[in-house]
Design a protein that fits this description.
The chain is built from no helices and 15 strands. The protein is an all-beta fold. It has a 4-stranded antiparallel beta sheet with strand order 4-5-6-7, with no helix packed on it. Strands 8-9-10-11 form a 4-stranded antiparallel beta sheet, with no helix packed on it.
């Protein structure tokens, strides 16, 4: 439900380093928290969906579908069914760093190899988007925004436009972004 709050969980190990620990969904109206994660060795799973521990970004399609970014792949939760889209299914390369969904339900997944797109049937890697990307967002006009080590990039469907230290930014390393709706 849109009114729920999704929280990424971490704990500190013996050395004080943060480690991922799945996610929690807080139902504001029902005042209930449900924990979602895959159980590790000697661990008890959460009471919710078996999602990878390191799920790092989320994007929503309506009320019944959520996409998560993780090192295991792009995680789709649709009507309480969890599907992990991994490299053999076409989500080429490495960990999914960021994920977003367009108004037309196209999924965009940021990876070191580029931005993968999923149309509900198959994954593809458009050649214009084959660049290392840390995070992605789609704005209300359908433009794809990308956080990269070389600045902020925007894809309008035809070409890439850049904003970097040569075009007004103080720093070119962009790790995350959010679009103001």
């Amino acid at each position: 439900c849109i009114r729920d709050r999704w929280l990424g969980l971490r704990y500190r190990d013996r050395d004080g380093d943060p480690r991922p620990y799945g996610l929690a969904v807080v139902a504001i109206r029902g005042r209930k928290t449900t924990y979602h994660r895959i159980a590790g060795p000697g661990d008890v799973a959460g009471d919710g969906w078996p999602v990878p521990l390191d799920s790092s970004d989320a994007s929503f399609i309506g009320k019944n579908e959520v996409w998560l970014a993780s090192s295991d792949g792009a995680v789709q939760i649709k009507e309480s069914q969890v599907t992990v889209h991994t490299e053999p299914e076409g989500a080429e390369g490495d960990l999914i760093r960021g994920i977003t969904v367009s108004a037309g339900a196209i999924v965009f997944a940021a990876t070191r190899s580029g931005v993968a797109t999923y149309n509900g049937v198959e994954w593809s890697f458009p050649k214009q988007l084959k660049r290392s990307v840390a995070d992605v967002e789609v704005d209300n006009d359908g433009r794809l925004w990308m956080a990269t080590t070389r600045g902020l990039a925007m894809f309008d469907g035809l070409q890439i436009h850049r904003l970097d230290i040569h075009r007004g930014l103080l720093e070119s390393q962009i790790d995350e972004l959010a679009v103001d709706h």
